[in-house]
Write a structure and sequence with these properties.
The chain is built from 8 helices and 8 strands. It is α+β, with helices and mostly antiparallel strands. It has a domain at 1-71: Nucleotidyltransferase, domain 5 (2-Layer Sandwich), CATH 3.30.420. The model is unreliable at 194-201 (pLDDT under 50).
Length: 201
Protein backbone atom coordinates (compact mmCIF):
# COMPACT_ATOMS: atom_id res chain seq x y z
CA UNK A 1 0.00 0.00 0.00
CA UNK A 2 1.43 3.34 -1.05
CA UNK A 3 0.87 6.48 0.99
CA UNK A 4 2.36 9.97 0.47
CA UNK A 5 3.93 11.78 3.41
CA UNK A 6 4.67 15.39 4.33
CA UNK A 7 8.19 16.11 5.67
CA UNK A 8 9.60 13.03 7.36
CA UNK A 9 8.64 13.93 10.92
CA UNK A 10 7.23 11.21 13.15
CA UNK A 11 3.91 13.07 13.38
CA UNK A 12 3.24 12.48 9.68
CA UNK A 13 4.62 8.92 9.76
CA UNK A 14 2.35 8.11 12.68
CA UNK A 15 -0.73 9.54 10.93
CA UNK A 16 0.11 7.65 7.72
CA UNK A 17 0.52 4.36 9.62
CA UNK A 18 -2.76 4.86 11.43
CA UNK A 19 -4.52 5.57 8.15
CA UNK A 20 -2.90 2.61 6.37
CA UNK A 21 -3.80 0.16 9.13
CA UNK A 22 -7.41 1.35 9.14
CA UNK A 23 -7.82 0.93 5.38
CA UNK A 24 -5.83 -2.23 4.70
CA UNK A 25 -8.12 -5.22 4.12
CA UNK A 26 -5.77 -7.52 6.05
CA UNK A 27 -4.37 -7.10 9.57
CA UNK A 28 -0.84 -5.69 9.86
CA UNK A 29 1.49 -8.16 11.58
CA UNK A 30 4.93 -6.69 10.98
CA UNK A 31 6.47 -3.35 10.00
CA UNK A 32 9.89 -3.41 8.33
CA UNK A 33 11.54 -0.01 7.90
CA UNK A 34 14.80 1.58 6.87
CA UNK A 35 17.05 3.24 9.46
CA UNK A 36 15.68 6.79 9.28
CA UNK A 37 15.02 8.57 12.57
CA UNK A 38 11.36 9.02 11.54
CA UNK A 39 11.01 5.25 12.02
CA UNK A 40 13.68 4.30 14.54
CA UNK A 41 12.39 6.00 17.68
CA UNK A 42 10.74 5.04 20.94
CA UNK A 43 7.34 6.47 19.98
CA UNK A 44 7.01 4.17 16.96
CA UNK A 45 8.26 1.18 18.98
CA UNK A 46 5.63 1.77 21.67
CA UNK A 47 2.93 2.22 19.00
CA UNK A 48 3.86 -1.15 17.47
CA UNK A 49 3.78 -2.82 20.89
CA UNK A 50 0.33 -1.36 21.64
CA UNK A 51 -1.00 -2.58 18.29
CA UNK A 52 0.69 -6.01 18.48
CA UNK A 53 2.81 -5.28 15.39
CA UNK A 54 6.34 -6.64 15.03
CA UNK A 55 8.97 -3.99 14.21
CA UNK A 56 12.15 -4.82 12.28
CA UNK A 57 14.67 -2.64 10.47
CA UNK A 58 17.47 -2.88 7.96
CA UNK A 59 20.86 -3.68 9.43
CA UNK A 60 23.38 -0.88 9.51
CA UNK A 61 25.95 -0.89 6.68
CA UNK A 62 24.11 -3.75 4.95
CA UNK A 63 22.81 -2.11 1.79
CA UNK A 64 21.36 -5.39 0.52
CA UNK A 65 18.73 -5.20 3.29
CA UNK A 66 17.19 -2.12 1.72
CA UNK A 67 15.50 -4.12 -1.04
CA UNK A 68 13.11 -5.55 1.57
CA UNK A 69 12.01 -2.02 2.49
CA UNK A 70 11.83 -0.50 -0.96
CA UNK A 71 11.26 -3.53 -3.16
CA UNK A 72 8.05 -2.10 -4.64
CA UNK A 73 9.42 1.36 -5.43
CA UNK A 74 10.29 0.50 -9.01
CA UNK A 75 7.37 -1.74 -9.89
CA UNK A 76 4.59 -0.03 -7.94
CA UNK A 77 5.60 3.58 -7.32
CA UNK A 78 8.02 4.98 -9.91
CA UNK A 79 6.27 3.10 -12.69
CA UNK A 80 3.09 5.03 -11.92
CA UNK A 81 4.10 8.48 -10.61
CA UNK A 82 7.64 8.74 -12.04
CA UNK A 83 10.49 10.66 -10.41
CA UNK A 84 9.03 14.16 -10.23
CA UNK A 85 8.64 15.84 -6.84
CA UNK A 86 5.23 16.73 -5.45
CA UNK A 87 5.36 19.24 -2.61
CA UNK A 88 2.94 20.82 -0.16
CA UNK A 89 -0.64 19.93 0.67
CA UNK A 90 -1.63 20.02 -3.00
CA UNK A 91 1.03 17.47 -3.93
CA UNK A 92 0.14 15.19 -1.02
CA UNK A 93 -3.57 15.29 -1.93
CA UNK A 94 -2.81 14.60 -5.61
CA UNK A 95 -0.61 11.63 -4.77
CA UNK A 96 -3.18 10.26 -2.34
CA UNK A 97 -5.86 10.43 -5.03
CA UNK A 98 -3.67 8.34 -7.35
CA UNK A 99 -2.70 5.83 -4.67
CA UNK A 100 -6.28 5.34 -3.46
CA UNK A 101 -7.22 3.90 -6.85
CA UNK A 102 -3.89 2.23 -7.62
CA UNK A 103 -3.86 0.36 -4.30
CA UNK A 104 -7.30 -1.04 -5.12
CA UNK A 105 -6.18 -2.15 -8.57
CA UNK A 106 -2.96 -3.64 -7.26
CA UNK A 107 -4.60 -5.60 -4.44
CA UNK A 108 -7.77 -6.82 -6.13
CA UNK A 109 -7.09 -6.97 -9.88
CA UNK A 110 -3.40 -7.04 -10.82
CA UNK A 111 -1.86 -10.53 -10.66
CA UNK A 112 1.71 -11.11 -9.57
CA UNK A 113 4.02 -14.09 -9.31
CA UNK A 114 6.11 -15.31 -6.39
CA UNK A 115 9.47 -16.97 -6.70
CA UNK A 116 9.16 -20.56 -5.41
CA UNK A 117 12.46 -22.05 -6.55
CA UNK A 118 15.88 -20.73 -7.50
CA UNK A 119 18.64 -23.10 -8.53
CA UNK A 120 22.15 -22.34 -9.71
CA UNK A 121 24.06 -24.91 -11.72
CA UNK A 122 27.45 -23.63 -12.77
CA UNK A 123 26.94 -20.25 -14.43
CA UNK A 124 23.24 -20.81 -15.12
CA UNK A 125 20.48 -19.81 -12.72
CA UNK A 126 17.00 -21.29 -13.07
CA UNK A 127 13.98 -19.63 -11.47
CA UNK A 128 10.48 -21.01 -11.10
CA UNK A 129 7.43 -18.95 -10.20
CA UNK A 130 3.97 -19.87 -9.01
CA UNK A 131 0.71 -19.22 -10.83
CA UNK A 132 -0.05 -15.48 -11.26
CA UNK A 133 -2.59 -14.35 -8.66
CA UNK A 134 -3.72 -11.05 -7.22
CA UNK A 135 -3.16 -10.43 -3.49
CA UNK A 136 -6.94 -10.78 -3.10
CA UNK A 137 -6.88 -14.27 -4.63
CA UNK A 138 -3.91 -15.28 -2.47
CA UNK A 139 -5.76 -14.16 0.65
CA UNK A 140 -8.80 -16.24 -0.26
CA UNK A 141 -6.59 -19.29 -0.84
CA UNK A 142 -4.63 -18.87 2.39
CA UNK A 143 -5.86 -21.30 5.09
CA UNK A 144 -4.59 -18.97 7.84
CA UNK A 145 -6.98 -16.18 6.80
CA UNK A 146 -10.25 -16.42 8.72
CA UNK A 147 -13.56 -17.02 6.95
CA UNK A 148 -14.92 -13.77 8.35
CA UNK A 149 -12.07 -11.83 6.75
CA UNK A 150 -12.47 -13.70 3.48
CA UNK A 151 -16.15 -12.78 3.40
CA UNK A 152 -15.27 -9.16 4.06
CA UNK A 153 -12.78 -9.16 1.18
CA UNK A 154 -15.33 -10.79 -1.12
CA UNK A 155 -17.87 -8.13 -0.24
CA UNK A 156 -15.34 -5.39 -1.02
CA UNK A 157 -14.49 -7.02 -4.34
CA UNK A 158 -18.14 -7.13 -5.42
CA UNK A 159 -18.41 -3.36 -4.98
CA UNK A 160 -15.42 -2.69 -7.24
CA UNK A 161 -15.46 -2.22 -10.99
CA UNK A 162 -12.17 -2.54 -12.85
CA UNK A 163 -12.96 -0.04 -15.62
CA UNK A 164 -14.20 2.59 -13.17
CA UNK A 165 -11.09 2.27 -11.01
CA UNK A 166 -8.76 2.53 -14.02
CA UNK A 167 -10.63 5.56 -15.33
CA UNK A 168 -10.49 7.28 -11.94
CA UNK A 169 -6.75 6.57 -11.60
CA UNK A 170 -6.09 8.00 -15.08
CA UNK A 171 -7.95 11.18 -14.15
CA UNK A 172 -6.00 11.40 -10.88
CA UNK A 173 -2.71 10.98 -12.77
CA UNK A 174 -3.63 13.80 -15.14
CA UNK A 175 -4.30 16.08 -12.17
CA UNK A 176 -1.10 14.93 -10.49
CA UNK A 177 1.00 16.32 -13.32
CA UNK A 178 -0.18 19.85 -12.56
CA UNK A 179 1.23 19.50 -9.02
CA UNK A 180 4.70 18.36 -10.07
CA UNK A 181 7.75 20.47 -9.23
CA UNK A 182 9.96 20.96 -12.34
CA UNK A 183 12.42 18.09 -12.66
CA UNK A 184 16.10 19.17 -12.61
CA UNK A 185 18.38 18.51 -15.57
CA UNK A 186 20.95 15.75 -15.11
CA UNK A 187 24.14 15.55 -17.16
CA UNK A 188 25.41 12.10 -18.10
CA UNK A 189 29.00 11.14 -17.38
CA UNK A 190 31.83 11.61 -19.87
CA UNK A 191 30.25 14.59 -21.58
CA UNK A 192 27.05 12.85 -22.62
CA UNK A 193 23.78 14.57 -23.45
CA UNK A 194 21.64 15.99 -20.62
CA UNK A 195 18.96 13.65 -19.34
CA UNK A 196 15.53 14.78 -18.19
CA UNK A 197 13.32 12.39 -16.29
CA UNK A 198 9.72 12.36 -17.41
CA UNK A 199 6.94 13.11 -14.86
CA UNK A 200 5.61 9.57 -15.11
CA UNK A 201 5.46 6.65 -17.48
Amino acid sequence: MDCPLRPEAFRWVFEALQDACSRLPLPVRILHTDNGSEFINRALFEWCVQNNIGLTRSRGKRKNDNCFVEQKNGASVRKIVGYARYSGDEGVAALQAVYSHYNTLLNFFYPCQKLILKERVGSKTTKKYDKPQSPYERALADPEVSQALKQRLSSLKKELKLIDEMKSMTQALDKLLTSAVPVPMFVAKQGGKPLRIKPYG
